[in-house]
Structures are given as structure tokens and as C-alpha cells.
Specification:
Number of strands: 18
Distance between the termini: 45 Å
Strand content: 5-15%
Largest sheet: 6 strands, parallel
Radius of gyration: 27 Å
Strand order of the largest sheet: 3-2-6-7-1-8
Length: 628
């Protein structure tokens, strides 16, 4: 029966989608890992172009790379392919007055944050969309485009109708990663009784591992706004990993191997068997020992990946441990947490306008919770630490109400997905990425994209020479600190300090003071890690990628957002959202492997081992201590 279904699937998927298009119905193509969703998207584009050559089609994607891939496969005049941000900007940029009014309203309700904003500053200015934000000068960036567009589509019916008339067909790649506000525009604003855009969405809810993505479209499916079509084929994974993926999925979709003889997971007409092992150790055998057992060559980052949830060990190996230490182990942040707990427990009366130092002594926080430590007061003991002393001197005279708001963590430093969306929380790190991306684009000779992302203008041969010299200065680092590189990039006109940057410094002065003196070379190491130039990666970062060999280290690292134990237990006390989040991440990790998959779980409970046997098979669950 499965074979019969399989033979017919490739033919019927396109037929089902065509039926929806011809009946003016929105549709969702839901397909698991390796199912060829992008291939189907291209097929649909080719059909629409052929049957409706005079109608404009929009295809919006998550990244520029995805847009380029689609454009390379479908080259016609009536097709517009872009990222989500670029698409939205194209729709709203002509309506300058309405955009200015929307910006003012969004600032007034605090959805856009600007220091000392005067709405009169926008008079006579043209709103521009660039890589940085200066609201007072009429310049907006990625963070604002989605907010403004959503506001305008809700407020101005004329805008809705114009877009419906312009684009009768809009296709969305990787819908599950799309912002809720964008989905509202597509499935609410661009739908009407008289006329609508047909929206086609392609993706997989089991791969919705980012918090800001829409995830699933259940409410739109249940209300018949969208018809769901399932694609069951898997062209990437060997049989054993397809079977494991089916056991992990929670949405009812069951994948089967493709019958396409040219599919990557086929060998001489038969789907590859592959290997999948679950390794564990009761004693805490380190990761190097588990890698030795695996026996793979981890020097080729494009063929073999080591996946971890936590970044701390990676930071040490990759060379950005200084930055990681600041974001993950700041002594003042941890000290304030203890101080606040002490104040609450002792029911102390304090004046939050007093200096941080005064509050410490008025709260009698000179001692450890269990009394004196070696006869010294707690604060005096801590001040002997050079890092703590430097940080303490920076904040001791600030009002306590300001110091207690100091909060940041490693997620801000490593917010790679929201960086690609243009909506990172940490504007300092976002700014540094802009600088390094410009250096990379120049080095890769992608000059057109480089010029789109910089204020530097070339009008003469001297400008070209000056640009080359500037890039060489930034590329060489020459022992420069992060703040020195930021200043140089600004002075050169390569990457301007914008509203977000200055707002960040004002609001997070303490963090900036800590980061600014770190060698810029550390940030370059972070950049290389997040861009995939190293053999190890986080489990989030490899979505959409595939490798011959994948080693997954299942270690929560004290991160409460995930509970890997829950993957193998039938009954668990974990939060439902935590369980769902953990399963989706595990599914993405397992399905990256084109040949071999190894899971390493340190010190599991017996119940976890029994659960792993149900997923991997008892013969594939190996105790490393026994094997040594």
C-alpha cells in the first residue's frame, strides 16, 4: 500500500495544489525533512507562470540565499522573489504620509522605541529603508518594517486592495519561521469576499524551532482559510533515520522514502540503510572520548557536524570565551540576583534611588547567607577578584533601581536566527555583525550586495583604493578592540552608528563598557562559528542543512527551555511547551544526517535508556563504559 501511495505522490501533490489555485483557495504544503518542499514550490511557480503569464507572482523567503536559489531556477519577468522585509517595504514605501503617521502612532504606543522623539522631525523627510535606523532622519531598518507594515495594512484598506490587485498569487517559503504579524497580513488583510490574493505556504511545523515564528497554522486550517496538503516523501535520510523521525513527529505525518532513483538517499534503486546509534555513559565520559568511539573525521565542517545545545564548550574551542563569559557569567548580574533574594527574604526596607553600594550595606548584604567566610565580609571577599572589582566600580554609585535592571545572557550574544531576520535584541552585537558581513561580502567579491548594505559610495578610482585600504584595516584587526573597530567603520562610512546603537549604549551602558574593550578578533571568531565555518554547531543553527555525519550531544546545560529527558519518557512533569520544543529540536537534529547519526547522552536514567531502545532499537544503544 505504501509503495502504491509513493508512486502516485509526486504526481498528485502538484495536481492538488493546482486544484486549490484554480478554485482561488489558500493552501499549505506540509512536508517533513528532506521532502523537497522547495522543489514543489518551484513546480508551482512554473505552473502559474505558464498558465497565467500576465499575472504578477510574489514569492517571499526567509533569507537572501533562499531567494537567490529560487530565482536561479525560475527566471521570468512576472515573478518577484525577495525576503519578507523587502517585500513588505516594496508595498508601503510609496505611501509616505501614511507611513509617517504609522511611525508616530507606533512610537506613542511604545512598539517602536526612540529617545526624545519629536514628530515634527519627520516633516519634509522621505522615509527610507536601510541597514540601520535613524528615525529622526526618516531612516528605518528591519526591526521597524514588519511593525509598520502590519499597522498600515490594518489601518488603510486602500493598501490591501492595491497589493491584492498587484499580486493575485503570493507563495511563502518556510512559513513556520514567519512572524505572526506577517501571517496576519497575508491571511487576514489580503483576504476579502470580493477579491483576494491566493496564498501558498510551504514548510513543516515540526521544524518550527524558533520562538518568533508562527509555528503552525491550525486556527487558519480549522476555519478553512487554508487547505492543508501533506507531502510524505523523504529524499534525504536513510531508512533508519526516516523511521526514527516518524517516531519523534507529533503531527501525524508519516514519511516514506522517495522512489526517485536520483534522490540522495537512494543507492542503485534502494534506499540507503544508514546507521543510527544512541551512546551513553553512567560516568561522565567527556565528549572527546565519545568522538573517539565514533571515529569520524571532524576536520571537514561541510561533511561532519557536532551539535550541542549549549555554547560554552564551543566558545572555548572557537576562541570567543571572553564574550561568552561577559554574557553568561557577569558577576554583577549574579550578585544582584542574590541581593534581591536577600532583601525579599529579610523584608528589608530600602530606597531604590540610593546608590547600589549604599543599598548593599543598608540591606546588610556584607555577609554570605551562612555567615562570615574566612572572617571576611562577603563584599570584601568578592572585591579581591579583579573582574568583580572592575565591574563593581563601574556601577557602585549608580541608583540601585538602575543596577537591578541590568540583565543579559548568552542568548543575546548568539541570537543567530533573529539576526538573519533583522530583529536581534542586542543591537551592539547586531551592529558588529553588520561590520563583519561587509568585510565578508567584499572578500567574496559580492560587490553589488556590499554596496547595498553600506553608506560608502564609489564615484572614482580613488574611492575604490580607499575602500580597499579601509577593508584591509578592518580585516587585519591589528589588535583593535571592539569599540575601536566600531569607530573606524563609522568614520570610514562603511557602517554608521544608528539610533539602535545609541539607544543601546544609553540603556545598557554597563554592558557596553564591558564589551567595548574585548579584542575584535573574538567577535570574528564568533562570526565564523555562527556562519558554519567550524566543525561544531548549535542544534538550532543547522536547520535546513544536511551532512554525511551528525553527532548530537544531548545535554540541557541548565537551559530550562528544553528537557531532553522528556524525549524518552512516557510520563514527565515537564511543561507541555518545553516537551514540544524539545521534540522539534531533536527532530531537526536527527534529520540532518544523510548517512550516519550518533546521539550521545551523558549519565541517563534507566528510564531514559529504556525509552531510547524503543526509538533506536536495543542493539543500537551502547554503553561506552562497557565498550572501553
Amino acid at each position: 500500500m505504501d509503495q502504491e501511495i509513493l508512486i502516485n505522490e509526486s504526481d498528485t501533490i502538484l495536481t492538488q495544489i493546482i486544484s486549490r489555485i484554480e478554485n482561488n483557495k489558500n493552501f499549505l504544503l506540509s512536508g517533513g525533512a528532506g521532502s523537497g518542499k522547495t522543489y514543489s514550490l518551484v513546480q508551482v511557480l512554473q505552473y502559474i507562470v505558464k498558465e497565467y503569464p500576465k499575472k504578477q507572482i510574489a514569492c517571499i523567503t526567509f533569507t537572501n540565499a533562499a531567494a537567490d536559489e529560487i530565482l536561479s531556477r525560475v527566471k521570468v519577468n512576472n515573478l518577484y522573489v525577495s525576503t519578507i522585509h523587502e517585500f513588505l517595504w516594496l508595498q508601503i514605501q510609496r505611501f509616505q504620509n501614511e507611513m509617517k503617521q504609522s511611525i508616530i502612532e507606533l512610537i506613542q504606543n511604545s512598539k517602536i522605541k526612540v529617545q526624545n522623539f519629536d514628530e515634527n522631525l519627520l516633516l519634509g523627510k522621505t522615509i527610507q529603508y536601510k541597514e540601520y535606523t535613524q528615525i529622526a532622519n526618516g531612516i528605518i531598518s528591519h526591526d521597524e518594517v514588519i511593525l509598520i507594515a502590519n499597522h498600515m495594512f490594518n489601518k488603510y484598506p486602500k493598501l490591501k486592495q492595491i497589493v491584492i490587485d498587484r499580486y493575485p498569487y503570493i507563495l511563502v517559503d518556510e512559513y513556520q519561521d514567519t512572524d505572526q504579524l506577517v501571517i496576519e497580513i497575508l491571511l487576514n488583510s489580503l483576504q476579502s469576499e470580493n477579491k483576494k490574493s491566493v496564498i501558498g505556504l510551504f514548510g513543516d511545523e515540526m521544524q518550527a524551532i524558533y520562538d518568533k515564528g508562527i509555528g503552525n497554522l491550525d486556527k487558519y486550517i480549522d476555519s478553512s482559510v487554508v487547505d492543508k496538503i501533506e507531502k510524505r516523501e523523504n529524499r534525504r535520510n536513510p531508512q533508519v533515520i526516516i523511521d526514527i523521525g516518524n517516531k519523534i513527529r507529533t503531527d501525524g505525518l508519516v514519511q516514506i522514502p522517495s522512489t526517485d532513483q536520483d534522490a540522495p538517499n537512494m543507492l542503485e534503486g534502494i534506499v540507503k540503510k544508514g546507521n543510527a546509534l544512541f551512546l551513553y555513559s553512567k560516568e561522565n565520559i567527556n565528549i572527546k572520548e565519545s568522538k573517539f568511539f565514533v571515529g569520524w573525521d571532524f576536520q571537514d565542517p561541510w561533511q561532519t557536524k557536532e551539535l550541542r545545545l549549549t555554547h560554552n564548550l564551543i566558545a572555548q574551542e572557537a576562541g570567543f570565551e571572553g564574550l561568552m563569559s561577559i554574557y553568561d557569567k557577569d558577576p554583577i548580574v549574579k550578585f544582584v540576583q542574590g541581593l534581591q533574594a536577600h532583601i525579599k527574604k529579610q523584608n528589608k526596607e530600602i530606597n531604590e534611588q540610593d546608590s547600589f553600594e549604599k543599598v548593599i550595606y543598608s540591606a546588610d548584604w556584607r555577609y554570605l547567607k551562612k555567615g562570615k567566610h574566612n572572617g571576611e565580609t562577603y563584599l570584601e571577599d568578592r572585591l579581591k577578584d579583579e573582574v568583580f572589582l572592575k565591574c563593581y566600580n563601574q556601577v557602585k554609585n549608580l541608583p540601585y533601581c538602575k543596577v537591578k535592571k541590568i540583565k543579559f545572557n548568552k542568548d543575546d550574544l548568539l541570537d543567530d536566527i533573529n539576526r538573519k531576520r533583522g530583529s536581534m535584541n542586542d543591537q551592539l552585537i547586531k551592529h558588529l555583525f553588520k561590520i563583519q558581513e561587509l568585510v565578508s561580502l567584499y572578500d567574496e567579491k559580492r560587490y553589488n550586495e556590499f554596496l547595498r548594505k553600506t553608506e560608502f559610495r564609489i564615484v572614482s578610482v580613488k574611492d575604490k583604493q580607499r575602500l580597499k585600504e579601509n577593508i584591509e584595516q578592518l580585516r587585519g584587526y591589528n589588535g583593535l578592540s571592539i569599540s575601536e573597530v566600531i569607530d573606524k567603520a563609522d568614520d570610514m562610512g562603511l557602517c554608521r552608528k544608528d539610533d539602535h546603537f545609541y539607544h543601546f549604549i544609553k540603556e545598557k551602558e554597563y554592558l557596553y563598557e564591558r564589551v567595548k574593550d574585548v579584542p575584535y578578533s573574538e567577535f570574528v571568531n564568533l562570526y565564523n562559528y555562527l556562519e558554519g565555518y567550524l566543525p561544531f554547531s548549535t542544534q538550532h543553527k543547522i536547520k535546513g542543512r544536511e551532512f554525511e555525519n551528525v553527532l548530537v550531544i544531548l545535554d540541557n546545560g541548565k537551559w530550562n527551555n528544553y528537557n531532553f529527558e522528556s524525549l524518552f519518557l512516557e510520563n514527565t512533569k515537564s511543561n507541555t511547551k518545553v516537551i514540544e520544543r524539545s521534540k522539534k529540536l531533536f527532530y531537526v537534529c536527527c534529520t540532518r544526517a544523510m548517512e550516519n547519526l550518533i546521539i550521545y547522552y551523558p549519565d541517563p536514567k534507566e528510564e531514559v535508556i529504556e525509552g531510547a531502545k524503543k526509538i533506536f532499537g536495543a542493539e543500537n544503544c551502547i554503553n561506552l563504559e562497557v565498550e572501553q
